[in-house]
Amino acid sequence: MTGYTHRGRSSARIVAAGSVGLLAVGALTACGASAGVGGTADADDAADRTLTVYAAASLTRTFEQIAEDFEAAHDGVDVELSFAGSSDLVAQIQQGAPADVLASADTANMDKIVADGLQAGTPTDFASNALMIAVPPGNPADVASLADLADDDVHLVVCAPEVPCGAATERVEQAAGLTFAPVSEEQSVTDVLNKVITGEADAGLVYVTDVRGAGGKVEGIELPESDSAVNVYPIVVLEQSPEPELAQEFVDAVLDQDGQQVLTDAGFAAP
Amino acid sequence: MIPRWVAAVAAVGALLVVLPLATMAARVNWADFWTLITSESSVAALLLSLRTSAVSTLLCLVVGVPLALVLARARFAGIDLLRSLVLVPLVLPPVVGGIALLYTFGRRGLLGESLELAGIQIAFSTAAVVLAQTFVALPFLVISLEGAVRTAGTRYDVVAATLGARPTTVLFRVTLPLVWPGLLSGTVLSFARCLGEFGATITFAGSLQGVTRTLPLEIYLQRETDPDAAVALSFVLVAVAVLVIGLTRRSRSAL
Q1: Contact A195 B206 (CB under 8 A)
Q2: A234 vs A101, A105, B193, CA distance in Å?
Q3: Residue B131 needs a FRET pair 20 to 30 A away by CA distance; which of A158, B52, B96, B193 works?
Q4: B9 to chain A: which residues are within 8 Å by CB?
Q5: Residues 6+ positions from B52 with CB-CB distance below 8 Å
Q6: What is the DSSP code string of A87-117?
Q7: Does the model's ipTM exceed the 0.85 cut?
Q8: If one looks up domain A39-127+232-265 in CATH, what number appears?
Q9: If you classify domain A131-229 with CATH, what class do you get?
Q10: Tens digit of pLDDT for each residue in A198-248?
């Protein structure tokens, strides 16, 4: 009998301890969030400000450079960059992630932010990126044009239509009147590039900037049809930003001559 | 007798697992649930997952049972090292397994190049999915079975042998029947691990509907454009996993 009462009592305690644990978890995440937003409240030096920039994965190199220049020009400002697929970034912001600026790799994902009213001001287009054929060094399958990609003997890897580079691929396909039979439709343009670099794929459709960034690890073949496959990159300050002026200054740094030069050097074109 | 604080921490641990799953179930769009999970791509992914997981589990059994027996019974230099190596996929990020498989079975890989010359292409085929799943699931079978074989000991085997049974007869009539529960749970764990395999598959096999795009890959892709479909499919995967694990527990306790 006593055994039963014991059990009843301890289960009540279990629930209590469980909720304490949950509260602890809640407190931890709350700490993390506030540190990410500004980190200014408890900082001993009031001049220390943090700007969190969410940017599409394809912007990694260029935005690292622009952020470095920005920090050099702004004393006491720390730019934190978070790179991921544009749809991941948008989903995170919709779930309340503390970002000040968003730079997306396509307008479709930026439209989701605008639809939810999470932006401050109007998104500005700051760059564009076109598709290019990437082949492994030596071009083992002798790919010379877009039409060769429709050949059954060529192992072609592209992005899935659900992601921005895949949507661009579909537009190229339609514009050229071709039907591709890819051996794989990858989740991201980086996955496509990797399949080409490792020689798994004979050819892949990636961005001009990816070919440029891969150095000599892939060869690029330009597409005359690429005009139809341009992705435009918009940037915007987010409504929740506690530092809207500083965030706008970062956006301006992307749009000014120096920022645009960094982007051009990486293979981006004007919007 | 369990100290109360242990029970309390255990409750937190259980919540950590159960709460996110329950929250996800609450987010499922039940009105469109059936439409979401019966779309052409969803059905193709589910069937591919079940098919490849079944084949992979069979492969795990074929090579895993002998491996577990050797690890449990054999005595030779380097066996401890072998045991550690075989169990590595348990703790390895699957994407690392995928990279390793790529450099072995890929078109320019160690074995892949010769295989391609022989007209066998593993890259971007369903066989690549099976290889990836077998790679990550094998340790689950080996570790369960090895433990069971050790616990069972060798007494009955020795008796059978002294009565004149050949080693193969002893294996099938005495050893394996004795470790049946361990074998069953190992098999189910492997199957469940195959169903959930993602990282090695996306790295090594690629992603194409009906060929290499298994359910976890489909969920990851659907999330891009149709979060409702991703959540619905996730729920299906959780339900299958719970069902499979529940069935084994039941059949084990019946034994």
Answers
A1: yes
A2: 11, 7, 41
A3: A158
A4: 17, 21
A5: B126, B129, B130, B133, B194, B214
A6: HHHHHHHHTT---SEEE-SSHHHHHHHHHTT
A7: no
A8: 3.40.190.10
A9: alpha beta
A10: 999 999 999 999 999 888 899 999 888 656 678 899 999 999 999 999 999
- Chains A, B: CB contacts within 8 A come to 85
Beta pairing class for A101-103 and A184-186 = unpaired
Here the contacts of A249-257 (C-beta below 8 Å, separation 24 or greater) are A249/A70, A249/A74, A250/A51, A250/A53, A250/A67, A250/A70, A250/A79, A250/A100, A250/A101, A251/A101, A251/A124, A253/A66, A253/A69, A253/A70, A253/A73, A254/A63, A254/A66, A254/A103, A254/A126, A255/A124, A255/A126
Q: Find the CB nearest A163 among B208, B213, B224.
A: B224
The two structure tokens encoding residue A241: 């930003």
What H or E segment, with its residue span, contains residue B26? helix B4-27
- What percentage of chain B has pLDDT greater than the value 90? 68
| Optimal mutation site among A86, A185, A192, interface B, most CBs of chain B within 10 A | A185
Q: Is B200 on the interface with A (CB under 8 A)?
A: no
Residue A125 phi, psi (nearest 5): -75, 130
In angstroms, the CA A135 to CA B249 distance is 51
The two three-digit tokens of residue A187, written as one number: 């989740």
Dihedral angle over CA of B52, B58, B62, B63, nearest 10: 40
Q: Which of A267, A248, A253 is nearest to A71 (CA)?
A: A253
H helices present in A156-239, as ranges: 164-176, 189-197, 208-213
Segment 214-243 of chain B within 8 Å of chain A by CB: 217, 220-225, 227
The CATH architecture that domain B41-72+126-254 belongs to is: Orthogonal Bundle (1.10)
**pTM of the full predicted structure?**
0.78
Is B11 in the A-facing interface, judged by CB distances under 8 Å? yes
Nearest to A52 by CA among A20, A83, A12: A83
Alpha-carbon distance of A131 to A41, in angstroms, equals 45
Residue B31 buriedness (CB in 10 A; 0-12 / 13-18 / 19+): exposed
The first and second tokens of residue A128, run together, are 């564009």
